[in-house]
Amino acid sequence: MKKTITLFINGQRYSHEVEPRLLLVHYLREVVGLTGAHIGCETSTCGACTVLLDGKAVKACTVLAVQADGRFVTTIEGIAANGSLDAVQEAFWNEHALQCGFCTPGMILTAKQLLAREPNPTEEQIRHGLEGNLCRCTGYQHIVNAVQAAASRSGD
Amino acid sequence: MATTTTKSPALLVGQSLRRREDPRLITGTATYVDDVKMPGMHHACILRSPHAAARIRGIRTSRALEMPGVVAVFTGEDVAHLGPVPCGAALPGLRVPAHTVLARDRVYYVGHPVAVVVATDRYLAADALDAIEVDWEPLPAVADPEKALEPGSPAVHPEWPDNIAFTYKQEGGDVDKAFAEADVVVRQRLVNQRLIPVAMETRGVVAEWKPGDRQLTLYTSTQIPHLVRTLVAGMLKMPENRLRVVAPEVGGGFGSKLNVYAEEALMAFVAMKIGKPVKWIESRRENFVATIHGRGHVDYYEVAAKRDGTILGIKLKLIQDIGAYHQLLTPAIPTLSILMMPGLYKCKNVRADLIGVFTNCTPTDAYRGAGRPEATYGIERMVDILAAELQMDPAEIRFKNFVGSGEFPYQTATGLSYDSGDYAAPLRKALETVSYKTLREEQRKAREAGRLIGIGISTYGEICALGPSASLPCGGWESATVKIEPGGQVTVLTGISPHGQGEETTFAQIVADELGVSIDDVVVLHGDTSLVQYGIGTFGSRNTAIGGTALYFALQDLKEKLKKFGAMLLESDDVVWNRGRCVCMKSGKEVTLPEIAAASYRAMKLPENTDPGLVATRFWEPPNFTFPFGAHIVVTEVDSETGAVQILRYVAVDDCGKIINPLLVRGQIHGGVVQALGQVFYEHAVYDENGQLVTGELTDYAVPKASYIPAIESYHTETPSPVNPLGVKGVGEAGTIGCTPAAVNSVVDALSHLGVRHIDMPLTPEKIWKVIQDRRTA
Amino acid sequence: MIPDTFDYSAPVTLTEAIELLSSGAKALAGGQSLIPLMKLRLASPQHLVDLSRIPELSGIREENGVLHIGAMTTHYEIESSMLLRSACPLLPQTAGRIGDVQIRNMGTIGGSIAHADPASDYPAALLALDATVRIAGAGGFRTVSYEDLLVDSFLVALEPGEVIVDIMAPVDPPNTGTCYVKAPQAASGFAIVGVAVRAVKSDGVVSSARVGVTGLAAKPFRARSVEQALGGTRGTDADITRAAALVGDGVDANSDLHASADYRKHLAEVYLRRALRAALI
Ligand SMILES: Cc1cc2nc3c(=O)[nH]c(=O)nc-3n(C[C@H](O)[C@H](O)[C@H](O)COP(=O)(O)OP(=O)(O)OC[C@H]3O[C@@H](n4cnc5c(N)ncnc54)[C@H](O)[C@@H]3O)c2cc1C
Ligand code: FES
Ligand code: FES
User: How far apart are CA C198 and CA C208, in angstroms?
Assistant: First the structure.
């Protein structure tokens, strides 16, 4: 039985009839057409699908679209305000915190939430805070640098 | 025509520019295969064997066909006319099993594709998969390569009961004499465990058939779009110019996408059959069994030496786990290990005996480093074992045996010609960086206090820039086309297929410097066979050294042509090309590149024997490999109670030749090192006796997480390669190659006073704890 | 990869939820255990009842020295609760070691308890805290000790139609030391072994010590022999070593790809020593 859901995604309201089993990540990618959240596993391990649900980082492959009914979703496509990059995006670019880029949207959103909760994280806090996001390319070091750079920039 | 001269801007090569590919990636707007959407697109799911070996007595698809949204189910019989999944490597006596696109009457490994179901949507295709009924007759299987060699073990392919896929020998110098004259011989069995590459993006294919144009387009997550086109066209028996292959954004490969897979031909077949575009996206579970694995060696080493540490000879018996089939390069990978056997050392006497063994497992093939990390691990572990035997310092024994900096080009016992190097330099730098003497002293004191500190060194060499065509089954050259557009902007079409390495940036740096244009005026395109002249692709750290060199020569051709037009426009025969302008040496007058470009396309007047336009294409065949090298030092502490290892320090000094972009080089080193640390501490594709992959998910197969990994200190020495005019060597695999022996040497060093000589990877806490327990009770 | 089809309801009252659950539906909390199972089609419920919109299942409060934690409270809310950090730091410490931040943002304590994964983290802490659990069903509410709720691996004493409403733990009395330590399985993050300790000292003597162990056996358990050995001692390093050595006695330890039974027992002892030292010294 299909359900009608209404979500606020990147500040815009969307309403669709969906099957309850539709995963949020497929809803975003295939129904709404926002393909920035990626799918890297089916065991909720890799974090490539991370989006912010009511401001909290969640793995969109492990949330049903119906669970997000009435809530606010932020995806990677929604964080650059009027065409200017978010501080974390900018820092990822400057610090070469990505290679193939597949993990990057999830990584950036998790990093954003991390900084929202802890504006001046230590290296250890950053590494611990990114445990739910796997990157096979960068060895994480430039990602850690980027989060630090974004932290000091927003601290200015 | 301007006559003022402007100060030339600083050259970009050598600068840490941030990448030009990043804006699309950090905003989520890049297009990976799964982001490709087409009107009427259907979805395919593949039914795979749950058994490592079984006969298929029958397949019933009728129930699946009745499911909602299902349009077709195809089995082995339907695709029997397709050519086999290709093996490009040729070795004398190689046994090549028939590798059909879908299994027919028998399966040979868990994950073997058996049927494909096509539905209008991905959820419905997944539903229908469960409704296909297969009548299996399970058969005995063998998953361990050494067991597979034992008489009476199950035959993977019934036609070859000994399970031997091939044997291969290589010998240089006089090994028997070396061993007869040796003061000491050390022997060790080293296992280089089977690994799963785990690119974060799994594989995926979208196929679209346009009957009106008789044109098939395949979007596939690959490192080698052109080779895929040639080989898949062959499988489909289709003219190559009717097939277009696009590697869109590719989410990591590490060798796992340096291949031609059954699904590429299968989706092409499906699209043509149903007349609709079709998408297949590999699940991670599938990826673990259906995409190639890496490593999978058992190595028996013997090293002969003089008492003073001089290495005289090396013998190696190498058992390579092939898996059930040969993929594109499977049998060639261990031969690379053999080529690299002597490492950076002057040893002229080597003998290798290689046996490739079939097992009922996923095929192995190239995984980051492909044969070279295995070789480096082997020689670098053995040198440490030898040093321990002789009670020599592991740094000293290496200095003693290095090929000297004055000996290049250096001919190795395995037939290679090392291009250039100063092998002692990175080791010296690494030792200084860690304050080696003081560190050893600290280690001694810590040991007295009951702490287990280890210092591990590896000095590696690698074969990069693969490679001269004679060394590869597919051609080893690379191509570049450079077009200066009528407006003066520059478009590069490169035959490599980067997917994270950053050549859209580094190639633009080269173009900007050579032509003197703004980097913002350069666009680098790749990965589409209908756009790019033929190319080989991205693997073996070849992008810059070969692809970049092809680009360099195309740019020289263009500069010549630019000068011809410039001379014509300046009405002078004494002109030079200077930073984007053609300058008359006599009058000082100059014309800019956009002015020349406009004139060359307008073609009102042409220089003698010169065609209009500004386009140059070069296919460059490298005369040799390049040979990067370096030294890594790892300091570890072992928790004697739990066996857990903490990395206290990781210092990498790498020499990858000339550096185009230091920021990107560091990124490659970090990534490579961390992938190798995965092998050292966590990763192992474990099969049980029945050939079931026990580590079948990311919840059981651990790849390193951010919190597991220390900061890596990355330094360089810079020895240009004489093989190419850019002087570059390659850096894509260095981290993976240098790391494993350094880390294992470090942990073994921490435990050496307990009498520990070797521990096989992965160095899990439990394994280390057991070793400590055993030594304490011994 | 893709769940089977099912119906979905998101009631706003407990009564409605219980009604639905009594007719065979399955509760959905944070979904961080259930949805992965459904994707792999290891679970295919016909009907899911999302508990997230029922107000009385959420929130953390203190009443007469007892902490009440709503079943739908997420791991992150527990980890970051100022109240818990001061009144019962063992729970935030334990919650902070669960999975990763995304899992902690969605996953709930009620879901974790109901799922009863033998390698999950909360059981160790809840056993050490002597927590109780309030359950609602068609017949009303009942309260059981957490220890009694726990039946076996992936099995709790819940009747069809019952919902965990909240979890109760006492506020730490003065001079209480607590600690949770865990050896995570490198790939999944679940506990190979996790040990939670809650010890109270009065006049320099251990007046009460409770130890919960997870990961080691098919069912998380209280290490009573360790507790007894510690009680009445001064909690010195020697006392700790002696007591911790008892943790594996008579335990039928798990053995799998990630750790053998022997190693698990050994780790439990080492980690228990460390946890006790942190709590007592
Ligand atoms: C990648 C990953 C890593 C993880 N790592 C850890 C870890 O390290 N340690 C750890 O402890 N856990 C870990 N977990 C599990 C996680 O903590 C889950 O959140 C938890 O086990 C289940 O809580 P949930 O709210 O998500 O429950 P759900 O998944 O929604 O439900 C789980 C079960 O409980 C039932 N249920 C839920 N709520 C109630 C209720 N109020 N009353 C009765 N029944 C109910 C459901 O019907 C279902 O059977 C991990 C999970 C993932 C995906
Ligand atoms: S896709 Fe891997 S965690 Fe969601
Ligand atoms: S950049 Fe490739 S996985 Fe992170």
Answer: 8
